[in-house]
Specification:
- The structure is a single chain.
- The protein is α+β, with helices and mostly antiparallel strands.
- It contains 7 helices and 8 strands, in the order E-E-H-E-H-H-E-E-H-E-H-H-E-E-H.
- A hairpin with a 5-residue loop joins strand 4 and strand 5.
- Helix 5 crosses helix 6.
Length: 189
């Protein structure tokens, strides 16, 4: 079997250290980094599976919670996705009405919490429609004419048109821009 003398500079995907790879497909600097990456991949897959199981278990619980007017603090954390400390802080501040029925039996009003976390209607901003160029062809220059008249390169003309958002219109292979805006722009420079 022939040995390759190919040395490809790479950076290890696990530890981030530079190394010389012997093949194009090499991703890690050592077997230790390969094994560590595999363990992390398994751990992430296990965590994702646990989250999915928790979500499936919570669906029934959430449906049952949504029918009751008063819920516990831990049920409110599941239903609204906020921490117990936040709920307790809101209770202490008097923003959420609560009833203490005994040790660890604090109940809060679900409707009051829902009212706090309702979606805020933001006014819709109408989308600006691009203004169509209403200039006649004889009221416009093409890029080459602008370049010749003002003594700048065509690439500079294109960059300037983009920078200042000057309307342009392509007819065939020529790009036309309004004379008045180009003259105003280049005469000031």
């Amino acid at each position: 079997m022939a040995k390759s003398n190919l040395k490809i500079p790479r950076i290890c995907e696990q530890c981030g250290k530079p190394f010389e790879a012997k093949t194009v497909a090499t991703r890690f600097c050592s077997s230790y980094c390969v094994n560590k990456s595999g363990r992390e991949k398994k751990r992430r897959a296990k965590e994702a599976e646990q989250k999915q199981i928790l979500l499936e278990e919570s669906i029934g619980k959430i449906a049952e919670i949504q029918t009751r007017p008063f819920i516990s603090v831990s049920e409110a954390t599941v239903l609204f996705g906020i921490s117990k400390d936040t709920i307790r802080r809101l209770i202490k501040a008097g923003k959420i009405p609560s009833f203490n029925l005994g040790q660890r039996l604090t109940r809060v009003s679900r409707t009051h919490i829902e009212a706090m976390f309702t979606a805020v209607d933001l006014p819709e901003v109408p989308e600006e429609k691009p203004v169509r160029m209403q200039y006649d062809k004889n009221e416009c220059y093409n890029i080459a004419e602008v370049s010749e008249k003002f003594g700048v390169s065509p690439s500079t003309v294109n960059k300037t048109i983009r920078k200042y958002s000057i309307p342009r219109r392509q007819i065939g292979k020529y790009v036309y821009v309004p004379k008045e805006q180009i003259e105003m722009l280049f005469s000031s420079k």
